[in-house]
Amino acid sequence: GVDYFSSIEPRKLKQFIDVVRNSELALIGGQDWFSKNEIKYREEVKKNWIVKKNLKKKDKLKLNDVEMLRHPEKGTYPLNFNKYNNREIILPIKKGSIIKKKYFKNKVCVTIVARSNSKRLKNKASLKIGNSCVLEHLFKKVKMLNNVDKIIFCTTKDKSDDALVKLAKKNNIQYFRGSTLNVLDRIMQPLKKIKPDIVVRITGDDILIDNEHFQLSLNYFLDKNFDYVDHKKLIGGTETEIFDFDTLKFIYENAINLNDTEYLTNYIKDNASFFNIGSSPVRTANLNRSSMTIDTKEDYEYVKKFLEKYYEINKNYYNYTYKDIFKFCKNFPRDFKNKKNKLKIKSMLKKN
Q1: Which of 264, 196, 192 lies closest to 230, judged by CA?
Q2: pLDDT 10s digits, 150-187
Q3: Which end of the chain is more exposed for a tag (fewer CB within 10 A), N or C?
């Protein structure tokens, strides 16, 4: 027939499909862009920027001060030299050391992301907790963090978030109102003007931020030259996420779909081969299934009970540490599927 040249028989069709499927794997890399052997080889031959001579505090880093060499220290990634070229050094650097972010002053900006239209717990940011509300409690805790240069509250232009903006003004927190769906755009718009080196992202669900572990995470980020560090080993609701600003900028400029970028962590983990990522160590062991993240009414009640308990003893709602949270979770473990256990927690709190 007239179309014989564009037709294919069953046996050849199977071969054709196999070629297409293999081509897809070649293009997208299957589960990862690199094979295990490629990743292993990359780690073995990796070179770092090494200083050729002792550098003093207040010296400025120059290209002729460094060379690219393999180094016995493992787990430290090469610095983006162009970003730190000609920057003033804040700590002495010994000859033969790897150049790290910690040797320079880094501008750290905390972004707090929250909105009123939560699907699981409506208006949770405005719910009463302690002597303030959920979002205001977070504002006060973030203000207690050390080594932070700027705090920005990122919310939406939706009328429902007017009340949250008022809270930001009341607490002298700079705010930006942007897209409802595109969370990364909402974060990036104000950051374009500030141009920080490091961005700390905190969601409005996680209000029990611990300064000690934040410093531990920040130091870990700076010491290993990471692009991204999480603190998932901590009890939920107490952790932060730390990004290199250039990493956020890369995602913003290259991600195909920026809607629903609330889950930036997933994007980074799904493309782990392109980023230097780590999970910060903790000083207190974690508790399985423990969480103080406020997603549901039960979560809110649990966090509220912790703050009330802490206030009973210390007459303060904000000076708690991660050890206090850990102790509470250990003494009053959660299991909201079990109504008897829920009542037991309630009665124990009243009793104590």
Answers
A1: 264
A2: 999 999 999 999 999 999 999 999 999 998 888 999 99
A3: N
Residue among 224, 223, 260, 229 nearest 247 (CA): 229
Cα 86 to Cα 60: distance, rounded to the nearest angstrom: 5
- 150 near 171, Cβ under 8 Å? no
Closest listed residue to residue 236, CA positions, set 335, 283, 183, 303:
303
Number of helices (H), then strands (E), belonging to the chain: the values are 12, 11
Per-residue DSSP letters for 239-265? --EEEEHHHHHHHHHH-S--TTGGGHH
Q: What is the pTM of this model?
A: 0.84
Half-sphere exposure of 88 (CA within 13 A, CB side): 4
Location of structure tokens 């230097």? 276
Strands 198-203 and 241-244 come out as: antiparallel
Element (H, E) at 227: none
Give 8-44 pLDDT, tens digit per residue.
Answer: 889 999 999 999 998 887 776 545 567 788 888 888 8
The DSSP code for 25 is H
